[in-house]
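It would be a great kindness if you could assist me with a short task in structural biology. Thank you for your consideration; the sequence and its tokens are set out here.
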Amino acid sequence: MPEPIKVDVANRLNRNLGLFNAGSQVTIDIVTPAGKRGKFRTTFIGFLSKQYVLIQYPDSNKLGGFGQYITQGANITVRGVVEGHEGSIVAFVSPVLQTIQIPSRLMVLDFPKTVSLQNLRSTVRIDTDIKAKVKVNDDYWQASIQDISAKGCQLSVNNGDSLVLSKEQDILIVIEDFQGKSNVKLDAVICNVKTQVDSIAVGVQFKAKASKPIIDLLNAALTSEA
């Protein structure tokens, strides 16, 4: 997997952060000391060059126990789809300077040292949990997409005791509803199969790489909450 391009802050970071319009939807990643990861949707407010970035504090009801880890010094990963640059994302990691309550509840993040600008059409892979159906021959099986990239995805097929899958076998993935995307159909070919305790892990490659439905799914997965 190629490394994202790291942009030097002193020369170009303002321009790249400026790709986020005020009010843009972003997601933040919070990792607990035990390594548990939570992903939450929120809003990019703005920034002051070389000083700080302002992010709307996520809905406390959705944060649950993760809220206790939004403390001074905690690193927060921010990601968002760049408007006007289809299939591109901007991401950076910054520590929390403080949280404020007025005029609204905000997170004040330190101004980041680097920012990643990456095209989703590359091999970037996004962890997700998208409910889907897999058509094998004439039968449909319940499944979930565990991660996705422009080239393929990792499937977990439920209750597949009687299901026989093999490498290079053609399948159809159907996503009935995800983040406003409905009845998305993706033709794929199986790359690898691994039997698990109560499911089958299946790695697949899309036949139409980086097609618009796939990029739309990547964008939706990027801004979906855990």
Remarks:
- The helical segments are 9-17, 60-63, 212-222.
- The radius of gyration is 19 Å.
- Residues 5-9 have pLDDT under 50 and may be disordered.
